[in-house]
Amino acid sequence: MTAPNSPLRGRKLGDRRVVVDRPHSAYFRYAGAGVMIAKAAASAPTTAFGRRLARVRAFIFGKPLSSAQEIEERLSKKLALPIFSSDAISSSAYATDEILRVLVLAGLAWMTWSIAVAAAIALMLTIVAFSYRQVCRGYPSGGGAYVVARENLGPNFGLIAAAALMVDYVMTVAVSSASALANLATAFEAIAPYKVELGALVIVLVTAANLRGVRESGNIFAIPTYLFVGMALLAVGVGLVNTATGAAHHLSPPPFAEQPGVQAFTMLLLLKAFAGGSVALTGVEAIANGVPAFKPPEAKNAANTLIIMALLLGTIFIGLTFVGLQYGVMATTPQGPTVLGQVGSAVFGGGFLFILLQISAALILFLACNTSFNAFPRLAAILANDDCMPRQFAFRGDRLAFSWGIVVLAAVAIGMLYAFNASVDALIPLYSVGVFICFTLSQAGMVVHWRKERSSGWAWRSMVNGCGAILTGVVFVVVASEKFFNGAWMVLIFIPSLIAMMMFIRHQYASSARQLTMRPGAAVPQPHRHNRVVIPISGVDRAVVQALNVARSITTDIRAVYVSDDPHHSDSIRDLWTQAVPDVPLVLVESPYRALIAPVVAYLDVLDRSWPNEQEKPITFVLIPEYVARSWWERMLYNQAAKRLRAALLGRPHTVVINVPYRRDDARPPAAPEEQPAGTLVAADNGRPH
Amino acid sequence: MPEANTPVFRRAVIALSGSAIDAGIVRLALEVTRHTHAELIAVHVVELDWTQPLDADVAERSEEAQRVLDAAEGIAELMHGKLESVLVQARDVGAAIVDEAAAREADLLILGLPYRTRFGGDFAIGRAVPYALKNAPCAVWVVREPMGEESR
C-alpha cells in the first residue's frame, strides 16, 4: 500500500475527501475479478537504450497495436483483393506466353489452339475457385488446403499440402523479385551485377511493409494491383472493340520471336501447353488460407473476394489470349516483348497508356510476392497451433502481424536468391510445382468432405471436385516431369524434408506434453523431498550475505563452498566466515589445478553420492551470489565465473540454480553493533565481487 | 438545436457509480467532447461510514472500486479518447463529486442515474444527484437509464 494522501477540504464545512492512489493504473487495468490487462506501458522498455530502440522500431514498423485492435486491422474486400490476389492476378501477365511457347513448337498453324487451352485452364480455374469458395465457408479458421487435407484425408496428407504450399510461397517471393529485377536489368544494364543485392533489398522492403501490419501493407500495395487490373481490362476491352470493328490486324513478328517448330501436334504437346498455362492458377489458394484476416462475416467476405479474383483473373487471361490471337502475337524468348506488351502496343499504339500498362505489369510482378507474405505466415501460424511448427510462429508481433513467419519467409527467399544468383531461369523450374500438389489434395479432400456431409447437391459437388482433383493431379505430373531435370527435383526433396521436420516437431511437442501433463483432477500434494542449499562463494561480502539470507528462507540445510588455488587465502576466508556465519558450514576446496567450476560440480556429485540410496534424492538449490553491474562495460568485469557455473549446472538432475542479485542500491549503512538484532549477518566488506 | 448553440466544454467530470449506466455516460462524454478535445475526468467515490477513518486503506485495496474506473478507461481506449481517472474516499458521495468537479474547475458534471424504485413503487433518485443539481457550480447532466420492462 502507498502512503494515504491527506484529506482535502470540500466547499462546505466538514466535507472532506481523500484522493486514493491507483499504483496499478499506469500499467494494468482490471477486467474482471482477479483479471488484469497489461497496458502498453507495462510492455514499454525501461532502459534508455530500450526506449531509443522502441522509438526506432515505431518509426519503421509503426506503434504497437493491442490485441483489441485486431478487429480494426481486418481487411475489407477492397483491401483484401490486392493483398491476397496480386500473385494470382499477376500470373495473367505471363500465362498466355507459357501456352504460346509450347504451341509454337508445332508450327504457327496450331497457335489458334491457344484459346482452347486458355478456355480449359479457365474451366479449371472455375473448379478450383468453386472448391476454395467452399473451403472458405467450410473452414473459416483459415488454413486452406492444409486444413481440408488434414480434416478429410488425414494429418499426414495435411502436412504434404502444407509443405508443398510453403515451398511454393518461398519460391513465389524468390521468383517474383528475381524476375522483376531481370526486367529492370534489361532497361538499366548497370544494375545487372547487383541483381542479388537489389533483390534482397526488395524483399527486405516488402518484409518491413508487412511487419507494419496487414492493413497498412494492403494500403501500400493496393494501388499497383488495381492499376494493373484497370490497365489490363482496358487493353482487353479496346482489343475486343477493335476486333469487332475489324480494326485488329496481324502484327509483324516481334524481335526475339520463338521460331516455329516442326513437332507433331499431339495430345502430349497440348497437355504441356495446358500445364504451362496453368501457372495462371498459382496464388488462387491464398484467400482460403487467410479467411480470419477478413472483416466479419469473414467466410462470406473471403468467398466473395475469391470469386471476384477468379473473375478478374479469368477475364484478363482469356481476354489477353483472345485479343493476342486476333493480333497474331507470338511467344518470344525472355529478351523479347511479352504477350501483354505486344497486345498493349497493338491496342494503345505505344503511347502513354502503353507505358502505364507496362509499368503496372512490372509493379504487380514485383508485388506478387506480397501474397506469399500474407499467406505463408498465416499457414505457419496454423501449423504452429497444431504443434507442427515452432510455437513462435503463432505469436503476433507489435503490429499484430505474424512476425516470425514474415521474417523466416524473407530470410529463406533471400537465401534462395543468393543460392541461385537471382537467375530467373534457374529458379523458375522450382516454381509452381508445389501448388498443384496442394490443389490436388484440397480437391480430393473436398470430395471426401461432400461424401461425409451428404448435404444437398453433394453428388455433383463431389463430382466437380473429383474432376478438379484429376485435372490438377495431371497438371502436377506434367509440370513435375517437365521441370524435373531442370531443378524441380529439388522441390521434390524440399517437400519431404519439410514434412519430416514438421513430423519431428509434432513428435517432440507430443512427447514433452506427455511428460508435463498432470493427471486430470489430481490434487497437488505438499512437497516431501528434502531441500538443501549450496552457496558457492568467492569471498565473504554483502552479496554472499544476501544469498545466505535467501538460503535461510528455503531450508536450514545450508553449506557454502569456497574453491581456491591459494591455501593462505583459504585460511583467511575460513577465519572471516567462522566469525561472521558460525552456524553455516564452509567447505574449502583447494584446487591445485586452478579449476574453479569443475570442483564445485564435483562437490555436488559427491554430495549426491553420499545421500542414502534408499531415500529419495534431495533437491539441491545452488544459490549463486551475483553483483549487479550498473552499466554495460561493468558487466564484462563481474560474474564471469557465475555465468560459467550456471552453464555447467544447466540440466543437472535434482538441482535448482538460483541467481541472487546484489545491487548497490540494496546496500544499507550497517547498523551500530549494539543495534543489530540477534541473528543478523553483517559481512566484512573485504570480499571481491564475483 | 443549431450548431452555433451547442455548448462547448473544456473539462468534464464524469461521476461513476459502478452501475450499468457508467458505460453509457462515458461513451456519451467521449462523443460530446470528441471534437472539442475537452479534458475528461472519471471520478468514482467510495463512501466510508464513520466507523473508519477517512484515510483508511479501503478503496486502494478494493478491486471492485478500481474496476469501475478501469472499465471507463477501457471504453476511452477503444474509442481512441483520453480519460483521467480519480478514485476518492469520502463520507458523502454527492459532496465529494461536486467538490472534485469544483476543485478541477470542470464546466460540466455528468452523472448516471439508475432507474430504481422504492418499496411501494416510487422512483428513487438517491442523494447524490439532487446534491449535485443543487450545489455544483458547473453545468450538470443527469442521464437516467431506461426503465426496465417491469417498470413500464
Characterize the main sheet of chain B: 5 strands, parallel
Strand percentage of chain A: 5-15%
Share of residues in helices of chain A = 55-70%
Strand content of chain B: 25-35%
What is the CATH C level class of the largest domain in chain A, in words? Mainly Alpha
Q: Globular, elongated, flat, extended or rod-shaped: what is the shape of chain A?
A: elongated
Low-confidence stretches of chain B: none
Poorly predicted spans of chain A: 671-690
Helical content of chain B (DSSP H or I, runs of 4+): 25-40%
Number of strands of chain A: 9
Query: Could you say which structural class the secondary elements and strand pairing of chain A correspond to?
Result: alpha/beta
Largest interface: A-B, 30 and 35 residues
**Termini Cα gap of chain B:** 29 Å
At the first level of CATH, the class of chain B is Alpha Beta
Which architecture of chain B per CATH? 3-Layer(aba) Sandwich
Strands of the largest sheet of chain A, in order across it? Answer: 7-6-5-8-9
Written description of the protein model:
- The complex is a heterodimer of chains A (690) and B (152).
- By secondary structure, chain A is of the alpha/beta class.
- Chain A has 3 domains: 37 residues, no CATH class; 436 residues, Up-down Bundle (Amino acid/polyamine transporter I); 145 residues, Rossmann fold (3-Layer(aba) Sandwich), CATH 3.40.50.
- In chain A, 58% of the residues lie in helices and 8% in strands.
- In chain A, the strands form 3 sheets. A 5-stranded parallel β-sheet of chain A has the order 7-6-5-8-9, sandwiched between helices. Chain A has a two-stranded antiparallel ribbon with strand order 1-2.
- The relative contact order of chain A is 0.11.
- The C terminus of chain A is likely disordered.
- By secondary structure, chain B is an alpha/beta fold.
- Chain B has one domain: HUPs (Rossmann fold), CATH 3.40.50.
- Chain B is 31% helix and 25% strand.
- Chain B starts with 10 loop residues before the first strand and ends in an 8-residue tail after the last strand.
- Chains A and B meet through strand 2 and strand 3 of A and helix 2, strand 3 and helix 3 of B.
- Strand 2 of chain A pairs antiparallel with strand 3 of chain B, so a sheet runs across the interface.
